[in-house]
């Protein structure tokens, strides 16, 4: 029996809608959105388009929904879906703009017994699944530090969209939130303190265009992170992993480095450096071990995971509401630290 499915929002949601049509267990019965892109996607997929998702909910019976609307609409759209009897919700990242809104979403889904999957799709990447297992294996030894980079140049036309120039539309909430969630997921560590310095010197918009961050983890390790969406560079996961069809060129660079007492790993190139048993120190030759992985499409894999949740084949979402909230708290702490120019502790 097919799962009657709808997608709200056809910017990010267009990929979900196309994947849904290709999934034999999903029946994409409607989509919600407005504007030329929404009309084109609906026509391409031959599915009814509703400008108002509330009308869709009244007229179309559904088993599951993907919400890819602006963050500020997540609370009310989740509430509307629950009121319509839907108990399987894929909610795009970030879970919300504020901790309060995120807590509302988590609480209402728990009260209704609904399954909530937050769309941090990299948790479904074969690369990140491998990285999580590698760190857990102990081959790094004790993790001491992490160095992360997201340096990329978005096209000038990207900023013709007004909300991309306003508070909440910068690379921290759009891009860095992925990198923060990646660390949360793969290391299992808890960020307890951040210090951030941000600048808008590249474009002069209201939002940041470069940020440097220092993390302290409750368990002891530290991490540094630099992000800019106005600097040409290959040191970012999107280009290096080449998992997204939008990015067609892979420079072969790493976006993350993990440093441990037994070795260090470059990611996503998967080059591991350590010493032979009984040898240690800079006068000794390093042994390089390279890992080859089969690449997948994380967003497609995420939707397949969502189907498994809907059917009961899997019980636990890879990214729960609580996971999404933990990531949001770190991003909000970075924004607060940069604005106040102070260290910010995270509860």
From TrEMBL:
Domain Gfo/Idh/MocA-like oxidoreductase N-terminal, first and last residues per copy: 3-120
GO molecular function (one): nucleotide binding
Superkingdom field: Bacteria
Coiled coil: none
Domain spans labelled GFO/IDH/MocA-like oxidoreductase: 129-265
Family matches, as SUPFAM superfamilies: Glyceraldehyde-3-phosphate dehydrogenase-like, C-terminal domain (SSF55347), NAD(P)-binding Rossmann-fold domains (SSF51735)
Signal peptide range in chain numbering: none
Family matches, as PANTHER family: BILIVERDIN REDUCTASE A (PTHR43377:SF1)
Name of this chain's protein: Gfo/Idh/MocA family oxidoreductase
Species name: Enteroscipio rubneri
């Amino acid at each position: 029996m097919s799962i009657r499915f709808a997608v709200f929002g056809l910017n990010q949601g267009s990929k979900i809608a196309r994947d849904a049509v290709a999934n034999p267990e999903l029946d994409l019965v409607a989509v919600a959105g407005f504007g030329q892109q929404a009309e084109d996607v609906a026509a391409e997929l031959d599915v009814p388009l509703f400008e108002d998702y509330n009308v869709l909910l009244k007229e179309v019976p559904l088993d599951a929904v993907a919400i890819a609307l602006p963050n500020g609409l997540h609370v009310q759209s989740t509430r509307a879906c629950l009121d319509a009897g839907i108990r399987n919700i894929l909610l795009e990242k970030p879970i919300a703009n504020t901790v309060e809104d995120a807590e509302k979403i988590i609480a209402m889904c728990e009260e209704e017994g609904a399954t909530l999957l937050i769309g941090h799709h990299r948790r479904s990447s074969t690369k990140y699944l491998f990285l999580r297992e590698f760190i857990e294996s102990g081959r790094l030894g004790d993790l001491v530090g992490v160095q992360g980079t997201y340096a990329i140049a978005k096209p000038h036309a990207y900023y013709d969209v007004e909300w991309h120039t306003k508070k909440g539309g910068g690379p921290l909430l759009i891009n860095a939130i992925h990198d923060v969630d990646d660390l949360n997921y793969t290391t299992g560590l808890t960020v307890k303190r951040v210090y951030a310095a941000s600048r808008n010197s590249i474009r002069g918009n209201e939002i940041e265009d470069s940020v440097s961050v220092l993390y302290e983890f409750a368990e002891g390790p530290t991490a540094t992170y630099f992000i800019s969406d106005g600097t040409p560079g290959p040191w970012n996961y999107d280009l290096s992993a080449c998992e997204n069809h939008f990015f067609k060129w892979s420079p072969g660079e790493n976006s993350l480095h993990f440093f441990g007492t037994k070795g260090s790993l470059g990611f996503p190139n998967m080059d591991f450096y350590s010493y032979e048993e009984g040898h240690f120190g800079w006068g000794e030759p390093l042994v390089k071990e390279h890992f080859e992985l089969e690449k997948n499409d994380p967003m497609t894999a995420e939707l397949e995971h969502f189907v498994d949740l809907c059917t009961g084949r899997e019980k636990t979402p890879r990214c729960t509401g609580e996971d999404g909230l933990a990531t949001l708290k770190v991003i909000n702490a970075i924004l607060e630290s940069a604005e106040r120019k102070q260290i910010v502790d995270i509860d």
